[in-house]
Design brief:
There is one protein chain. By secondary structure, the protein is mainly alpha-helical. 57% of the residues lie in helices and 0% in strands. It has twelve helices and no strands. It is elongated and about 55 Å long.
């Protein structure tokens, strides 16, 4: 049975979605890639690393190892050196190589189009699988929950959970399936531009009237706003 509170939360989520679409009409995945394999690799590299840094690393990486076959047989030391600046580079290099070996062995060198198969790949959890399915294949199987999506979903009162899987489940119940992935991307844009981790600009946020966390937020002085 749908409670009045849940119904109200869903209506609010849909209004937030409409405003995000208006605010960020051209929002798309900020990782650079040409193929689903490259998107998979870039997403693995983006763990605890900025997309900007990943995009600085991948041109040389994909020039040297453009596909699953070449990554599966790459010299691991060379692979580690190519991804070193993304952090945790030894684990990332091992995961990338092991994942690509499995792609070659089982899936013809391409990421599979089913969530359960993607989750078999080393280094791939639901966040990475959702990105690959959504942006690599246009398949919305879930909602990508990164640090921005987690923070904003909590601040907006759309979830009370801290576990990404539970947050994803809550969001899947509030947002229409065709919008699952573009919801995440637009929340990420908003998290970077306005609703930052340390000092959210509630005074300048077009979602503030829909956000419980913005109620009673302090409006900064003109000096602080300009500074």
């Amino acid at each position: 049975m749908v409670t009045q509170k849940k119904r109200g939360t869903k209506q609010r989520a849909l209004e937030i979605l409409l405003r995000l679409k208006r605010l960020y009409p051209d929002a798309t995945c900020s990782l650079n890639y040409e193929t689903p394999v490259q998107l998979l690799v870039a997403t693995i590299l983006s763990a605890q690393c900025t997309d900007e840094r990943v995009n600085q690393v991948t041109p040389a990486l994909f020039s040297r190892f453009p596909d699953a076959e070449s990554l599966a047989t790459a010299n691991i030391t060379e692979l580690e050196n190519l991804v070193r600046s993304t952090g945790f580079y030894r684990n990332k290099a091992r995961h990338i190589q092991a994942a690509c070996q499995l792609l070659v062995e089982k899936y013809g060198g391409q990421p599979p189009k089913l969530m359960e198969h993607l989750l078999e790949l080393p280094g791939v959890a639901r966040k990475t699988a959702n990105v690959v399915l959504g942006h690599g294949y246009g398949i919305n199987m879930g909602v990508t929950v990164d640090t921005h999506v987690k923070r904003l979903s909590q601040r907006l009162g759309l979830t009370t959970h801290t576990d990404p899987i539970r947050i994803e489940r809550d969001l899947m119940g509030l947002i229409p399936q065709p919008d699952w992935e573009n919801w995440s991307i637009r929340l990420i844009y908003h998290g970077r531009a306005i609703c930052t981790a340390r000092s959210p600009a509630c005074y300048n946020c077009e979602l503030s009237d829909l956000c419980p966390s913005a109620q009673g937020a302090t409006v900064p002085t003109a000096e602080k706003r300009l500074g």
